[in-house]
Amino acid sequence: MTEVANRLILVDTNCLIRVYFSPLLPVLNRPAAGYELKTLQALADELMHIANRRDEFAWLSAKDIQNDVKLAVLPLTKAQSHAIDQEATVIRKQGNGMLQEYCQDQGVNLRQLSVADAKVLAAALELSIAMSTDEWPLRQVASAYSYDDGNSVELFSSVELISLLEKEGLLSREDRVKTYADWLKFGESLLRESPHIYFKEFGEFPPNAQH
């Protein structure tokens, strides 16, 4: 019987940070309810930059965390890297145009895609894999794109990542509750829909920062 490969999820920097609030190590590069969490070298570099430049995230420079991230970096051929870079340039230009129109229509402050944002989406499209981000501008732009087979880009949030880890038996309910509460306590900017996603995934209301 042929073993079905786990579907890959490309985890962006904000979600990388949040999964490491959990007590689980390693987090990446292992089966999680039919998926496997991966990242890009550019995002691994960005994570290390954050750890080195921001005191509140210095804990991310821990050897175990950095080794976990390093092992989960997707190996890309030169042709794939070139295609992703080219596509990211186009996505950033088109995406920022979409965001300008959307922000004006909604009467909210203008948001734009960073180079890293565009690269995450470009890589997900090039490799036909899922992606995880809590950045609403990136999710908004990603919703306008499809894979080559016509299916919409598969998106995950931080809450859905810890749900996968719990389903795999890697996190306990207590671990999950504490992780979410710690996000709030630390002031992490979760998706506005996170409480709704939490209830949908776990059948209970999310904890508050004082839990």
Q: Termini distance?
A: 46 Å
- Spans where pLDDT lies below 50 across 5 or more residues: none
Read across the widest sheet, the strand sequence of neighbours is 2-3-1-4-5
Overall SS class: alpha/beta
Total strands: 5
Description:
The structure is a single chain. By secondary structure, the chain is an alpha/beta fold. 53% of the residues lie in helices and 8% in strands. The chain contains 9 helices and 5 strands. It has a 5-stranded mixed sheet with strand order 2-3-1-4-5. Helix 4 (78-106) crosses helix 5 (115-127) and helix 4 crosses helix 6.
Entry summary:
With 211 residues, the chain is of the alpha/beta class. The protein has 9 helices and 5 strands, in the order βαββααααβαβααα.
Architecture blueprint of SSEs:
Elements: E1 7-11, H1 13-19, E2 31-32, E3 35-38, H2 41-53, H3 63-71, H4 78-106, H5 115-127, E4 130-132, H6 136-142, E5 155-156, H7 158-167, H8 173-186, H9 194-202
Parallel strand pairs: 1-3, 1-4, 4-5
Antiparallel strand pairs: 2-3
Helix pairs in contact: 4-5, 4-6
Tags for this model:
9 helices
